[in-house]
Amino acid sequence: MSKQYDARYFDRWYRGHGLGDRVLLARKVALAVANAEYHLQRPIRSVLDIGCGEGAWRAPLLKLRPHLSYLGFDSSKYAIQRYGRSRQLHYARFGDFAELRPCAPADLVVCSDVLHYLPTRELDRGLPGLVELCAGVAFLEVFVRGDAAEGDEEEFRNRPAAFYRQRFKALGLRQVGSHCWLSPRLVDDATALEIN
User: Fold this and answer.
1) Is residue 37 part of a domain?
2) What is the pLDDT of residues 47-99, one digit of tens each?
3) How far apart are CA 138 and CA 112, in angstroms?
4) What is the domain range of residue 22?
């Protein structure tokens, strides 16, 4: 990628802008946590955040579940240098998850606002690893052709929804609504109308 995920990028898109709205983020986090806990039938204990940026999900997650283990990965050298130590962030590109297994499978895997910027080859390389690292629910926030999404359009891949649905389903994920996908480990326990 030629785009620079530096301080100016995060200032432009996540501070003082709709994408950085703390109330909206808190609702999104609560939705993902509730979905994971509903299907796991217990409080979540671990979160893996792939493409975490500055680790914006960490604080609202810890507010809801103070004792959970949070681990974030991003390709922004700026974010890792600035927040890595204090927020448990580490450097990795999405494609690195073809081999990278940094933790046991997590109760909640977050990959928010990332996949629609990736070249198909990198997405296909890393996605099986993401699924393998998900023991509960994956929150995969993706925008597709026809969505009225607001935000960074540089290197945005304008793909149809079917492009992602086919890939997710081929790896055993099943949609449970609002960007949430059930891990293959839990699909057999779900009822017919809970999954899509």
Assistant:
1) yes
2) 999 999 999 999 999 999 999 999 999 999 999 999 999 999 999 999 999 99
3) 10
4) 7-189
